[in-house]
Amino acid sequence: MCCGSCAKCLGGTLIPLAVFGFLANILLFFPGGKVIDDNNNLSDEIWYFGGILGSGVLMIFPAVVFLGLKNNDCCGCCGNQSCGKRFAMFTSIIVAGIGFVGAGYSFIISAISINKGPKCLMGNGTWGYPFMNGDYLSDNSLWNKCDKPTDVVPWNLTLFSILLVIGGIQMILCAIQAINGLLGTLCGDCCRGEGTV
């Protein structure tokens, strides 16, 4: 398979993942599916925009670049027709690195938030983080420590888990493209001579 075709496939996969990451982060601003009165009562990690910036905006650029690699028709350089394609594949390694960092950012923010638990109104009438070191993950009876917003624990847990999975998949896809880009740089667009280089 041509390296450009592989990149196009990866780019096409990254776009819906970026959209889902973006939407999951937006939904986190409505804990339990409800609007809250004071934005200071939202979990801190929501404001780090892991899904919006990391898995969303920073992933759109690599996805668009990967999609365009298949049709890259640089005219070559130094009399070598495949030089333009090789350079494009080389630049895709750098772009894959940017995507990997963005996805990694989202992944780390999500993991921290899942471990920390959501910010909520506790039984003593103050807003805070009632859970310690992910203890609520194995014992859902602890979820009763959060009085409001209703269903904030499963809401945050579900959405941050989605962001965690999306970030992990995006990191894998960007790593695959980095390897694919390296092969494309060394061999040209089609490593087995399939099609023109």
Automatic annotation (TrEMBL):
The keyword Membrane applies. It is a multi-pass membrane protein. It comes from Cavia porcellus (Guinea pig). Keywords: Membrane, Transmembrane, Transmembrane helix. The gene is TM4SF4. Belongs to the L6 tetraspanin family. It is found in: Membrane. The keyword Transmembrane applies. Pfam families: L6_membrane. This is Transmembrane 4 L six family member 4.
